[in-house]
C-alpha cells in the first residue's frame, strides 16, 4: 500500500522571488542541511500542532518514518530561515478503493478525462499528514501555505504519471473555519466520502493511519487534486497578527518581530488556569531522540506544556487520540 515518497531522485526545489520550496526525505544525519531544515520545520509545527507531539508522533513522522517525507519553505534573511513545511505519504491503491468514497460525495468528483484515466488504473493517494507555517510577520498571510500545497500537487502529478495512476489528495483538516476554507480553496471537499477514505485506511492499519480528533477529512480526485492555486496575500491574517503582536510588544510580553503564537497560548492558558485551578495535564511527549541536544524535549519546559494542555482542556477531552489541531478557535 505505501510506496516510496520519491520513485527516483528528490524533486528539484521550486523558487520564486520570495521563498524556495525544498523536498526533504527522512533519515538524515544530524548536522546536514537536510536535518537542519527538518528541525526548523518541526520547531514551527511544535508550536502550532502541539498535540501531534504525543508519544513522539510528530517527531517520528518528520525525522524517522521512511514512508513519509516533507516539503519545507525556506527564505533567505542573513542565512536560510525555515518558515514552515508539510509532511505527506504516498499510497498506491486499487481502482476499487474509490468506489465507496465516490458513492458518498455530494457532487461529481471526476471529469470525463478523469474517468478515462481511471479505467482499471490504480489510485495514487497523497495523504498530507501535517502542515504548518510560522505565525509571525513576513510569514503569516503571505501565501506560503498555498505555495506548499502547489509544490506537493506538482509532485503528486509527476508520480501519478510515472505510475499511470489517478491522483488523489487527502488530508484531515483542523476543524476551524480558517483551515477548512484554506483546504476548500485548494480544491478539497469535506464529505462522508472523504471520511470513508480515512476510516478505510485506519481500518487497514490503525497504527500508521491515525484518525485525528478535532479534524475534518477532505478529499480531491483527479484534476482537482493537482490543480495549482495562485498564492495570494491575506490582508485579514496579516492585520489580525499585526494587531495582536503590536499589543504584546507594547506591553513588553513579546520581543519585536517575535513569534506571537506561543505568547498568546501562554496568556490564554494562564487565564484558564487561574479560573480552573483543578484542571490537570496529561503525559508529555516521549522523545525519540535524533535531534540536537538529545531527546525531543516537550516544547521548552514542562510548565509551558501544562499551560498548552489547559487551553485545550477547556474545550474538550485531553485523553482522546493525538490531534493535528491548529488551535484556530483558541485565539
Summed up, what is this model?
The protein has 331 residues and is α+β, with helices and mostly antiparallel strands.
Classify the helix fraction into a percent range.
25-40%
Using DSSP, what is the number of strands? 9
Q: Profile the largest sheet.
A: 9 strands, mixed
- The value of Rg in angstroms is 20 Å
Q: State the assembly state of the protein chains.
A: single chain
Silhouette? globular
What fraction of the residues are assigned to beta strands by DSSP? Answer: 15-25%
Distance between the ends: 39 Å
**Average of the residue pLDDT scores:** 76
List the helices and strands in order: EEEHHEEHHEHEHEHEHHHH
What report would you give on this structure?
- The chain is globular.
- Helices cover 39% and strands 19% of the residues.
- The protein is built from eleven helices and nine strands.
- It starts with a strand and ends in an 18-residue tail after the last helix.
- It is α+β, with helices and mostly antiparallel strands and 331 residues long.
- It has helices at residues 33-48, 57-64, 97-104, 112-118, 144-163, 177-185, 192-204, 223-226, 235-250, 260-275, 302-313; strands spanning 2-3, 14-15, 20-25, 68-76, 80-93, 123-133, 166-174, 189-190, 215-221.
- Strands 1, 2, 3, 4, 5, 6, 7, 8 and 9 form a nine-stranded mixed β-sheet that branches.
Amino acid at each position: 500500500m505505501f510506496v516510496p515518497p520519491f520513485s527516483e531522485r528528490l524533486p528539484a526545489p521550486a523558487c520564486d522571488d520570495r521563498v524556495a520550496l525544498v523536498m526533504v526525505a527522512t533519515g538524515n544525519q544530524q548536522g546536514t542541511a537536510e536535518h537542519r531544515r527538518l528541525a526548523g520545520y518541526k520547531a514551527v509545527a511544535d508550536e502550532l500542532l502541539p498535540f501531534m507531539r504525543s508519544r513522539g508522533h510528530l517527531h517520528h513522522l518528520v525525522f524517522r518514518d521512511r514512508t513519509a517525507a516533507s516539503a519545507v519553505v525556506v527564505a533567505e534573511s542573513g542565512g536560510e530561515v525555515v518558515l514552515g513545511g508539510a509532511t505527506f505519504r504516498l499510497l498506491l491503491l486499487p481502482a476499487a478503493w474509490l468506489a465507496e468514497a465516490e458513492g458518498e460525495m455530494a457532487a461529481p468528483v471526476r471529469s470525463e478525462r478523469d474517468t478515462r484515466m481511471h479505467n482499471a488504473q490504480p489510485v495514487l493517494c497523497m495523504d498530507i499528514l501535517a502542515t504548518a507555517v510560522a505565525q509571525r510577520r513576513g510569514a503569516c498571510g503571505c501565501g506560503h501555505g498555498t505555495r506548499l500545497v502547489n509544490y506537493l500537487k506538482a509532485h503528486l502529478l509527476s508520480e501519478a504519471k510515472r505510475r499511470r495512476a489517478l491522483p488523489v489528495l487527502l488530508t484531515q483538516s483542523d476543524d476551524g473555519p480558517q483551515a477548512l476554507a484554506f483546504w476548500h480553496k485548494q480544491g478539497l471537499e469535506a464529505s462522508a466520502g472523504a471520511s470513508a477514505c480515512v476510516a478505510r485506511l485506519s481500518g487497514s492499519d490503525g497504527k500508521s493511519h491515525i484518525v485525528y480528533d478535532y479534524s475534518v477529512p477532505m478529499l480531491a480526485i483527479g484534476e482537482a487534486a493537482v490543480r495549482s492555486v495562485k498564492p495570494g496575500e491575506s490582508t485579514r491574517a496579516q492585520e489580525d497578527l499585526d494587531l495582536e503582536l503590536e499589543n504584546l510588544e507594547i506591553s513588553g510580553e513579546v520581543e519585536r518581530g517575535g513569534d506571537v503564537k506561543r505568547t498568546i497560548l501562554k496568556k490564554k492558558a494562564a487565564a484558564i488556569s487561574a479560573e480552573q485551578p483543578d484542571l490537570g495535564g496529561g503525559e508529555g511527549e516521549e522523545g525519540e531522540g535524533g535531534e540536537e541536544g538529545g531527546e525531543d524535549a516537550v516544547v521548552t519546559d514542562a510548565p509551558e506544556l501544562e499551560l498548552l494542555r489547559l487551553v485545550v482542556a477547556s474545550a474538550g477531552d485531553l485523553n482522546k487520540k493525538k490531534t493535528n489541531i491548529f488551535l484556530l478557535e483558541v485565539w
